[in-house]
Amino acid sequence: MTESQPWWRSAVVYQVYPRSFADSDGDGIGDLRGLIGRLDHLERLGVDVLWLSPVYPSPQDDNGYDISDYRDVDPVFGTLADLDELIEAVHARGMRLMLDVVVNHTSDEHPWFADSRASRESVKRDWYWWRPPRPGHVGGEPGAEPTDWHGFFSGPVWEWDEASGEYYLHLFSAKQPDLNWENPQVRAAVQEMLRWWADRGVDGFRLDVINLISKAVRPDGTLPDGVDSPALAGTGLADGSAHYTNGPRLEEFLGELHREVFAAPTARGDVLVTVGEMPGVTLPLARSITDPGTPQLDMVFTFEHVSLDHGPGGKWDPRPLTLPALKANLAAWQTGLGDGWNALYWNNHDQPRIVSRWGDDSPEHRVASAKTLGTVLHLMRGTPFVYQGEELGLTNVSWTGIEDYRDLETLNHYRQAVRAGADPADVLAAVSAMGRDNARTPMPWSDAPHGGFTAGTPWLPANPAYPELNAAVAWADPRSVLHHYRRLIELRHTQPVVVDGDFELLLPDHEQLMVYRRTLGTQVLTVVANMSSAPASLDRTDLGITNGQVLLATHPPAPDDAGDVLLRPWESRVVLSTSALTP
Ligand code: NOJ
Description:
By secondary structure, the protein is of the alpha/beta class.
C-alpha cells in the first residue's frame, strides 16, 4: 500500500449476521457476547474489518433492518456496553468495526414515525412519505393507493392509516416506513446519528439500500405510477423502481453525508470506510459515487452479477448461470470503475450460499468449488467481503415445507405466488434455491448439538451438515476451504499486485474456464480456474505463463507439461511471474 492510499484498499471484510453467529445465553439467538467469544476465528482467518449487521433496538420484523432506536442495542443482542466492549476487543486485535445502518427507512415503532403518524399536523409529519388516496378513490380500498408500485417484500408499497386518513410509503414491509430525505431535518438527524457512532469508535458504515433514498417526486408532491412487468403478472401492481432507484438527488445527498460525516477522521484518527448497498446501481453511477475526486462513498455493492441467474420472473425464477456472462459482467466492473473501487462479494445475508448456487455442493466437488469460487473473487481488484460460513464452504439447506422458513420476504412471496395460482411445489423449489434463510442458518462451530451455536433451541435450524461441516473440523484440516480463504487473505496482504494490479480478462468466451491477469510493474499474477465439474484443458503457452511460481492451488500439482494443461474439475491455480517491462 502506498502512503496516499486509504487502508481499506488492502483490507478484507467479514460480515457477521449476529442473530446467527454465536449465542452466549442459550435463548437460541446469537448475541454480542457470543460474537466477542468468537473473535479468535476472525483474527486467525486474517480479516481486517468486521461488518456487523444491525443490532439496534428493533421489533425484528426484518431481523433488525427495521430500527426503532439508532443509538442503543436491542436486549436480544446485549447492551450498549457490550457493543463498546466489542469495538475495543476488535481494535485490540488490530481489526476494525463497520456498523450496518438503515436510513432509507426506520421501524414503524421508531419515535420519529410515532410522532409522524400521530396527526397530519405533527411537526414530523413530513419526515416520512404521507400521501392522500388516489383521486376518485376511497382510502383503504384496493386500487386507492397513491401509486401502483410493488414492494420488495410483495404487495403494495402503501399502507393506509385510518386514524390520520392518509397512506404512508414503505418500499419494504409495512413496518419499515421510508424516511423522506427531501426534508433537511431528516438528513441532519441522520448525520448527527452517524457522527455519534463515529465518535463512539466505529470505523465505518455499510449503508443499507442507500440508492433508494431519493424519490422522483414531482413539483406538486405526487409520485408517478410504475410500468408493467412480467414478474408482477396477476398482482395488479407495477414496477415503480425507476422512480425510487438512483433518484435525482442521490449524489447530492451522498455528497452531503460525506462532507458532514465521512470526511472527518474517526475517533482513532483514521479515515472512515463506507460501502453503500445499491440494488439497481449502474456502472457509470457507481464510478461517480466511488470516485475519490467527487467524494461520496468508498465502495458500492452492485447487484448486477448476482442477478445474472434471474429469469424474466426475477429472483424467484432462477436460471442456470452462463460463465461467459458472469465473466463479462465482473470484467466490466473491474475495468470500468476508473478511480473508484469495487466491493467484491458472492454472499451476504440476502443471497443463497455461493457453493450451492454457482459451485457444486455434491460431496465430490464441494470443497474444490468453494475454494475456486473464493479464489476468483478474492484476487480481483477491490475489497473482498466474506459472509459468515462462506469460509467453510457452507451450503444451502433444502427444507421441504414452507413452515421451515422464517424470512418475511420468502413467506410473503410464497403467499402471493400461491394466491396468484402458482403450484406450491414450484414456489418451494425456487425458495429453496434462492431464499434468504439459506444464508441465515446458525454458524456451525463444532459437531456439538446445533453446531455449537447455542445451548438452547436455535431460532432457525442448523444446516444438517454441521457434524462434518463446521469450523473446528475446518481448522484442523490444512486442506479445508477455511485454510484456503486464510491463504487468499494473506495473499492480499503480502502481494501488492493483488491490491493494485491492473485487471485483464483472458478467454472471455470459454464456457468452463475463468482466467485473468493482474499486472503491477513487472509482476504478473495469473488466475486460472476451472469453474465446472468436468475437466478442462488449456494451452499454457497461450497465457504466457510457462514460468512462474504457483502461489496457491486447489489441488496438488499434476504431472503437467509445458504445453497443454488439464485442469481437474473446479481446479484453480494462482501463478506469479515476472514480465519484461514494455518500453
Ligand atoms: C437490504 C438488507 O440487506 C435486507 O436484509 C433488508 O431486508 C432490506 N435491505 C431492507 O432493509
